[in-house]
Amino acid sequence: MKTIGYAAKDKTAPLAPFSFERRALRPNDVAMEILYCGVCHSDLHTVRNDWGGTVYPVVPGHEIVGRVTAVGSAVKTYKVGDNVAVGCMVDSCQDCDQCHAGEEQFCREGLTATYNSPDRISHENTYGGYSKHLVVREEFVLRVPDGLDLSRTGPILCAGITTYSPLRTWNVGPGSRVGVAGMGGLGHMAIKLAVGLGAHVTVLSRSPGKKKDAIDLGADAFLVTSDAEAMKVAADGFDLIIDTIPVKHDINPYMPLLDIDATICLVGQIGPLEELITPPVIFGRRRVAGSLIGGIRETQELLDFCARKNIMPECEVIRMDQINEAFERMEKSDVHYRFVIDMASLDVESAG
Prior knowledge:
By secondary structure, the chain is α/β, with parallel strands linked by helices.
C-alpha cells in the first residue's frame, strides 16, 4: 500500500513530506486510515538521534488514532469502519512469560516499536503515525470507546499509559497520597488519572506560578520544592511520587517526602540523574523505581477508564506542516501539555 507521511532524512534535517510503502495485509493485520497522531517528546529525541540508534529516514509517531479500512482474513476483533488506536508498540514475541502476562512492553525478545524498529518478519524498519495509513498486527490494535474525543485520544496511548501503569502497579486508590513532579505532557495526565482513581494529589514544583494550573487540572495541593520549610512539613507525606521530569535532575530532595516503604517512580528521564544520596532510602525503606508504558490489556483498560471518567489530555491540534515549529516549541517547553496532528491536513499532492 502506497502512503505518505513526514520523515526526517538525518538528525539535522527538518521533517518533510515522504512517500513510502506500507506492507500488504498479513492474515492477522488491520489496516487503518490515521485521523490523528499525538506528538511525544520521544519523537523529537529519536529524530535528533539523542538516544542513538535512529535509522533514517524516520517517520515518528506512536499516539495514533484511526479508522479501520481493511482487515486480514484471520482478524476477528475489528471490522471496517471501527475507530481504533495504536500506541508505542506494534508487535512482540507473544510467547514469553511477559507477553503471556499482558506485559508486552517487557517482551523477553524485545518489543517491536511503532517506529524505528525492525519488523519481526520482514526486518524492514517500522514507520510511525506521522502518516496517512498504518498496517498493524491485530493484537496491538486498541478499541476506542464511544464518547472519547478522537482528536484528544492519542496522548492517552503514551503519556496516559506511562503514568497510569505505575499508578496501578502501586495500587493507587481512595486514600492514596500521590505526588507528581513535572507538569508537562506526562505530568498533567498523572494528575488527572491519580485524581480519577481517588487519590489525594499534590504537584511538586519549583515554580509557585504553576499552582493555578495544577489546581485547574484537579490537584488537591501544590508543594513548592524550593521552600525548605514547606518541604520539611511535607516529610513522610507520600505513598507514591510519579517523577515525569524529562531531563537530568536531582531526586534527593524528594526522598524525605516519601513515607516508609513508599516509592518514587521515574517515567520521564531516560538517562543519567544526579548522584543518589542513600540514607533517606535506607532509613525509610524507600524505593526508587521506573516504569515503561504498559501492556496492551492495561492500555485498553485505561482507554475504557478515561471514557467512563471523562478524562482527556489537554491538547493543541496542529496541521502536519506545522510539525517542525511544534518540535521547536517543545524544546522550549512552549506547549499546552500536548500537540496532536490532524492528519486531514496532510496534503497528498505535496508528498509526491
